[in-house]
Structure formats: C-alpha cells, structure tokens
Amino acid sequence: MNSMRDQRVNEKRRAMMKAVSASSLALAGGGAALATGSANAAIADDPWGRAKEIVDRLNKPRRFRDQDFPITDFGAAQCKLVKIKAWISHDDQATVETQAPGSHDCYPAIKAAIEACHKAGGGRVVIPAGNWFVAGPIVLLSNVHVHLKKGANVLFSTQPADYAKYGEFDCGKHGKLVITRWQGNDCLNFASPIYAYGADNIALTGEDWTSILNGQGGVPFNGKDGDCWWTWKGKNRTINPASQANTPGYVEGKLTQRLPNPINPKSLKDVAPHLTEAERLHIQGEGERWRADEQYLPALSEAGVPLAQRVFGLGHFLRPTMIHIIGCTNVLLEGYEVKDTPFWQHHPVHCRNIVIRNVHCNSKGPNSDGFDPESCDMVLIEGCTFDTGDDCIAIKAGKDLDVQYGPSQNIVVQKCVMQSGHGAVTLGSEMAGGIQNVYAQDLVFENIHWATDPLNTAIRLKTNMNRGGYLKNFYVRNVKIPNGVQTSPSFYASLPNSPIESKTVAVAAGAVVTFDCDYTPTADTVRTRPPVVDNVQISHVTVGNVEVKKGPKKGQKAACYQAVVILGPVSNNYNGPQPMPQVPPVTNVTISDCDFGTTVSTEQPFFLYNVRGLKLNRVKIGGKEYNTTLSA
C-alpha cells in the first residue's frame, strides 16, 4: 500500500478530530454535556426545555467578514441550456434542461474565489443569477460564506471522473480522491459536488428557492440515454413496494453497487492478512456477494482495514452525497433548493453546531435522503421542506467498527414539512455509535403524493443485530399527517430460522410509527451487536384518512395499514461467539394523545415483538380509545 498516503490520511484525521473536539468544549460551557451524566435525568424531567436551550444556542447569528468575492471576478461565465430526456424519479422520465455541450466550466473560478476569500480572512463568495456549469467539487473553507443570488442555477457535472480529479489523495487508476463516509463507513471516494473537511465557520445560503444546486442525478452520463448516477443503485430490495419499484436505467445483470465487482479482491486475505480463517469467513459470508461495493466497504470496516486502504472512486459504484461536510464546526445551510442529487442530499459527519433552515430538499431518485446528520452534536433542522426518494431526515452514527466519532445527539427538528419520502423522521439505520437526545416538534407530514408514491411511514427507527447502537431520549410532539401513510404493507426478507417470517411484518412501509430492530437482516453478514431502544415519548400526532388504492379494502377510507409496528431485536439472528450478549427488549415507549385514524388491519392495529411496557394513553384508532400498557 502507499505508505505516504496512509500517513497523510492518518495525520489529516487526527487533526480534524482534535479540532472538532476542542470546538465541542468551547461551544458551550458544556454543549456536549447536555448528553452525559446527570444531564440525562434533567432531560427526562424537562425534555422540551432542553430542546429550547439547543435552539436558542444555535439561533445566534453567524458572522463573516464584510467583503464579497463574485465568481465572475475570477473568470466564471454562464452557460446555455439545452433540453434532454432524463429521469426525475425512480419510475418517471421527463424533459429537463441541462448545460449545452462544451459549456464553460466554472470550477476553477469558484475554487479561486473561495481560496481568495479564505486567504483574506473570510467573506462572501457570490454566485449571481444565471446558469453556471461546474465540473468538479465546490470545496468550502473556513470563514467562507458561499451565497447564491435569486435565480442562480448551478448545474453540476454528470461525469463521475470530474469528482476524481482534484482530491488530496492520489489513488492511481481510481483517481484523486477525498476522505468520505458512505452509508456509515469511511473510505476514499469521489468528492461530493459540495464538500468540506475540517472547516470552521462556513455557510452555504440562497436568496430563495430559485437559488438552485442541481446534482443532475437522473441525467444520463452520455447526455442521451443509458446510465445515470441513479442507475448505480441496482435492484430494489423491498418486498411489495407501493411505488419506487424500479431503478432508473437499470437492467438485470448490469454492474452496480449491489453486484460483485470483479476489481475487488477474491478474498479478504488479500487486504486483511491478519484475520484468522474463521474471522474471514464470518465477515465474507457465503458466496461472492461480499465483493459488491456496498458489501465490500463494510467488510473492510469489520476486518479493521485502515481508511487509507479503503480505496473506491473510479471503477466502483459508490455514489457521492451531494453536500458532504466532515469534521466541521459552526455550519449554516439556508435558503436554497437542492435537487436531483446523486445520493443523499446533505450528509454532515462529526460536525458540531450546525443549522439547516428553510432549505427545499427536492430529489426523488434512489437514496435521495434529505438531511442525514451522522455523529453530529448540536443540530437544528428548521423550516425545511422535503420531497424525497428516501427518508426525509435520517439521523445516523456510524456502522460496523466505524464508531470513532461517537453518537449523534442534541438534535432539534421543528417547523418542517415532509411532502413525501420513505420515513419522515428516521433514526438509523447506520447507528452503531448511538443516537440520543432528539426532539421533533411542530411538523407536517403532508404526503402529497399519497395516491401514487405514498409516504412509507412517519416516525421510524431502523437498526439490527449488525448495526446495533442505541436510541435513548427521543421525543416527538405536535405532528399532523393529513393524508396518512402507505395503506398497504411492505416487507423485508427475513433470515432463515428467524421467528419473523418474510412477508408478515410491515416494517418497510404501512405503519405510522415503525421501530424496526430487524432492518434488512439479510444484508449484514456479521450480526453480533444487539441494539438498545429506551425512553421514547410520542404525543399529539393526528393522522387523516384517504382512499385505499389496493387490496381487499380498496375504495374504503384509512390512514395506514397499522398504527404502530415495534419489532424489537431478534436474538435468533445473532451469529457471534457464545455466550451471546443480552438482547434487550424495546423499553419505556409512551404514545399519548394521538389519533391514528382508521387502520386497514382492523383486527391487528398494532404489531409488537420483544417490547416491554408500551404505554398508550388516550390513543385513538378507528374511533376507539386505548389506555393500556402492552408487552410482547
């Protein structure tokens, strides 16, 4: 391996970890301490008081030096647009506008403007109204505020190679790459269209939602037909999906993130010779599936392979997130629209003191999560609108052995609108480092596409015996869901010999509240980390009925298939050494003052497994009120 690259990766990570840790202590007189020690008891006594403390602290205005750096001063020029046919969702194509062939590349100008602003001590880099083509990443630096004026339309290149040209780490045939995290695991990979690493006091803002950052995720790479970023997803896993059953441009057998990549090693021995034979076989599992890029990266984590040796980029199929901010402090994201992103829309990792406000998260392609804070502390998500092809918000905290950044904690979600998506407010599935102290309030889950592309579930937890981790202190109140959620059940495949049979529990879609501690169990070979779920309080959720579109209740009115599905950890799925660790039930969940509307499954409005003491207080389902405590 490249020992110089190993050294530089390790030095950069150590410097970033040190800077963020110092900032965490400075934030607060105890900002991080909200989550530890005796603070847990105080949170339980007054959770919404704690939420207000977080909001008040993060709402302090950000300050930047008063100087503008227009990108036109550094050589940026507008591009002309042409119309082409492109994918706009999992299933739909339409005519869209993209940059004309041969358009001027604004990457050098924007890079020069940001560097000049940073060198001057900070200020504002201004992108004026107009159409701007960028063939490379916009890299944010400390004390720089990048601002899009009304009518600014930034179109990012659809060529993967443009995100493997400028990275700090030269990985030969795989390109010049950057440190990233992909679905909870660290790697060297394509730069994101907007990227920051280890920066302090940064902002990305727009004047309004005509200030657009367009990832062009559904635009074909060749500009005419064939593969686009979204094709790399591969085949859908969900059983009985009501919508989003397809992947744009995918045909059976096409190489994607889900099929064995022939350039990956034939055995983990080639990259992890320290493993015993038993350890290697445990991580690889049976057959060749572990060689698919989406399985190979977690295998490298489980095997303890250093970051510098986890090289992806060119020749691989791990799509970059749109806005990827790693190890940064004092971050503001506000006032723009992000659309058609290659992968997740926003992905801050190991950040402190971050606000996203009044952003339109508008991408309907595969894995188009709206905002995914991972191992972040002190986060405010406020006034945003989400129209997504996956979870609207998904709070995460590492996967496999990549837990060095710790938990996600002290997060407030408020005054947002979720128009569509999989889960509206989701925790996981990558949560090995833990999630705690999350507050969600005053939300509207509109579910505007309820007839054709319904919201799968509203309040969602995803983990399993691989992802493990914990969820503690999760509070939800004042949620309106006028058009219900999906009224038909969707499932994931279960493991052989599991007590949870496939096609029986509606954890993929169909319930208003879904806690799935057996999320896609067949996807993970190593299953040795039981998750913990404790202290969840949900109140004042109101769900409206809509017309059922399929099944025996077609034409009738319902709000959901079931009101609440809580599938606790499944001990049978454990496959590690004996003695098996304790596999605890889901505990201390209280649901109160809610009206879940009418369920399609009238005989079984709840599903519970490995749950102790679910308290229902003044909960209405189909007009019947429940005041009881349930265990299973």
Automatic annotation (TrEMBL):
PROSITE patterns registered for this protein in UniProt: POLYGALACTURONASE (PS00502), TAT (PS51318)
Keyword annotations from UniProtKB, A to Z: Glycosidase, Hydrolase, Signal
UniProt KW Hydrolase keyword: yes
GO MF term list: polygalacturonase activity
Superkingdom: Bacteria
GO-annotated biological processes: carbohydrate metabolic process
Hydrolase listed as a keyword: yes
Signal peptide from the UniProt entry: 1-41
Family as reported in the entry's similarity comment: Belongs to the glycosyl hydrolase 28 family.
Protein name from the UniProt record: Glycoside hydrolase family 28 protein
Organism, as annotated: Pseudoduganella lutea
